[in-house]
Amino acid sequence: DLDAIAWLEDRLAGHRGALLLVTHDRHVLDRLTTRIVELDRGRSHVHDGGYASYLAARDEREERAATAEAVRRNLARKELAWLRRGAPARTSKPKARIEAATRIVTGRAEAAARTGDLPLHVETPRLGDQVVELHGVGHRHADGPWLFQGVDLMLDPRERLGIVGPNGAGKTTLMRILAGTLEPAAGRRVVGSTVELALWDQLGADMDPNQRVRDAVAGPARKADWSDAALLERFWFDGDAQWAPIGSLSGGERRRLQLLLTLAKRPNVLLLDEPTNDLDLDSLRALEDFLEEWPGALVVVSHDRAFLERTVADVIVIDGTHDAERVPGGYAAWEADRRARRSSGGPSRSVESTAQRGTASAKRSPKPDAASRSGTGASDVPKRRSPSTLRHLTKEAEKVMTKAQRARDRTVEALHAMDPSDHVAYAEAGRAVADAEAVLGEAEERWLALLEEAES
What are phi and psi for residue 300, nearest 5 degrees? Predict the structure, then answer.
């Protein structure tokens, strides 16, 4: 669990001897390593420094590889044309050149760029205001002690929530209750009518090891409106891998197949239980990029600190005290809060019991009555949006603003490049600049308004 990882990290940091480790934990790589050896398609690449230095060096190497691959493709087109023209009138094709051309056409550059990020763009059904709600939920196994009690939780349509705590505290149990695969020992669960929920768990027990990969995706692919081959290629299953039995897949390949089958159900509420297990660094980064743009509600159980920092806005802490606490701000805020509490010996103000949160971010205001809908009564006050929703809206507004800035810059550059004597074209370009400025102004105003709302 997270405490054990931190303890081990501290012990290894104080170790005076040499250290060789294999890990996908980016925090560990950045803190403990001074050199990283990357194994990639049968080759090794050595990078000095920690994880951040490794990323920079690898990106530079892949840029060179991409350039080399572009040169190879261009040369391949020329050599194909040369081969197809046939022998010149009074000479024969040099044997060496034919062999070289064949190698170029059929091969790849030795340092070719790796496959790009997983293109995990999945359409999701509309999600209404009511998502998943827990009211006074508690659970224990048989007559054993309570894992947690009195949990009240209301997920927002744009929820980004992590569940953290020591092993055995009940994180997966709470996730299964949210998913509806486990009945709570106390309390009740309510699900909105528009919810399409999918759970990506650690087990993968629903996959037949004797079934071929392509057969496993036949039904889900049709629901996602993709062909079987296209769906598999989106998840790096090419060629023979599509016809391999599931039992022959590596741990990382099985996890990728699980993710494929989960997303092909087109959920709008996604529950991920230890999703980073067995995923390599490229798959991790691609999954994080996907979740950052995914429009549905997300709940994550994970021991990967970097993954939590990128994907969740708040965390619920289950620590074996029978209570579940919600910490706004994600993993980093929770870790800072823990340090503050240890140093002061008291509870932190930033932590809220889920049983005491009232109408805070995970709660929804009650539906207005007829009088308030007609414009009378106290319900005329606008409902305050949750912190997680505001964080998402602010991030999206910032992206829109950045795009508007780039569009405005392009119109200004086009105007400067024009001949002022061409009055008609110059006037049109000027209007384009004015329009772009107006769009940028609106984007900036929305971004500032969201910032002010979040800070109020």
Answer: -130, 135
**DSSP assignments along 350-372, one per residue:** T-EETTS-TTSTTS-PPPP-HHH
CB 295 within 8 A of CB 124: yes
Provide the residue count of the chain: 456
SS3 annotation, 125-179: CCCCCCCEEEEEEEECCCCCCCCEEEEEEECCCCCEEEEECCCCCCHHHHHHHHH
What is the pLDDT at residue 377?
A: 45
The Cβ of residue 266 has, within 10 Å, a number of other Cβ atoms equal to 16
Domain ranges of the chain: 33-106, 132-353, 387-455
DSSP 245: B
For 83-124, the DSSP string reads: HHH---TT----HHHHHHHHHHHH---TTPPPP---------
What average pLDDT does this structure show over 186-199? 93
Distances (CA, A) of 314 to 267, 270, 389, 396: 21, 16, 11, 18
Q: 132-353 belongs to which homologous superfamily?
A: P-loop containing nucleotide triphosphate hydrolases (3.40.50.300)
Residue with tokens 């305050």: 384
Residue 49 confidence (pLDDT): 86
Note the pLDDT of residue 102.
59
Residue 281 · residue 309 · CB < 8 Å: no
CB atoms within 10 A of CB 245: 14
Return the structure tokens found at 279.
């995923």
